[in-house]
From TrEMBL:
One Pfam family cited in the UniProt record for this chain: MRP-S26
UniProtKB keywords: Coiled coil, Mitochondrion, Ribonucleoprotein, Ribosomal protein, Transit peptide
CC annotations in GO: mitochondrial small ribosomal subunit
InterPro entries registered for this protein in UniProt: Ribosomal_mS26
Record's protein name: Small ribosomal subunit protein mS26
Start and end residues of each stretch annotated as Disordered: 210-243
Localization (cell): Mitochondrion
Record flagged with keyword Mitochondrion: yes
């Protein structure tokens, strides 16, 4: 039985090799043409009335033919299982073998080295771009600092000018300040020139200046004096004198 399985397996492998060589040797694609298309009944329609009560005839297979079919099926199943087992063994050898593991490790190391090398190149490129950007930012920052310093100097200059002007004004005003040397003179001047800032207003709008002041005379109350001629008389006298 084992020899039969081995021969069957070798036959299947040979057939697979021949089929693969045939497919590889072909340059044009394999196209299968459909000569006719037979539309069928949709699956949602019920059974036809003509076939509703039809009883299909059970095929009568001879015993010898049934035995031969069973033998052929067993051979086919054994061949398929042999091929599957062969492929599984090859896959296991490719994934768990010492040489395969070493090869994968070498490929992983090479891939890691390539990644590190590429990463270093990227880092160098990014570092170059970063240095250029930092140089541009430093130049812009230097210009901003210089402009800020110039603005600060200008503001300080304006402030010093304002301080100098304020100091000069204070010096000029200090000449009239009361000091221990001129306090007696200031007291005598204040007593001789009394200033009264009090005033009041009545209901008619008249202003009374001073604590005991009187309202100013209204124009209607003012009468021209006889000793002093009026303005019209003075103008008439001037015209007569000129003539």
């Amino acid at each position: 039985m084992s020899r039969f399985v081995t021969n069957s397996f070798q036959l299947c492998v040979a057939q697979l090799k021949i089929s693969s060589q045939t497919l590889v040797s072909r340059k044009s694609p394999c196209i299968q043409c459909i000569r006719c298309y037979r539309p069928r009944k949709p699956f949602w329609l019920p059974m036809a009335k003509s076939k509703m009560f039809r009883i299909p005839k059970k095929p009568n297979i001879p015993v010898e033919e049934d035995v031969e079919l069973s033998r052929l099926y067993n051979v086919w199943r054994t061949n398929i299982k042999s091929i599957q087992h062969h492929f599984k063994e090859q896959l296991r050898a490719q994934t768990t073998g010492i040489e395969v593991i070493e090869e994968r490790r070498q490929r992983a190391l090479e891939h890691h080295a390539n990644c590190v090398r590429e990463n270093e190149l990227w880092n160098a490129e990014v570092a170059k771009l970063r240095e250029e950007r930092q140089a541009r930012e430093a130049a812009i920052r230097e210009k901003e600092i210089q402009a800020a310093l110039a603005e600060h100097e200008r503001e300080q200059k304006i402030l010093m000018e304002q301080i100098d002007a304020s100091i000069r004004r204070e010096k000029e005003a200090a000449k009239s300040y009361i000091t221990p040397e001129n306090i007696d003179e200031a007291i005598e001047n204040a007593l001789s020139n009394v200033m009264d800032h009090n005033f009041c207003i009545d209901l008619e709008g008249n202003i009374f200046k001073g604590r005991y002041g009187k309202p100013p005379p209204s124009p209607s109350d003012m009468k021209p004096s006889l000793s002093q001629p009026s303005t019209e008389r003075q103008d008439a006298q001037a015209k007569e004198a000129s003539n």
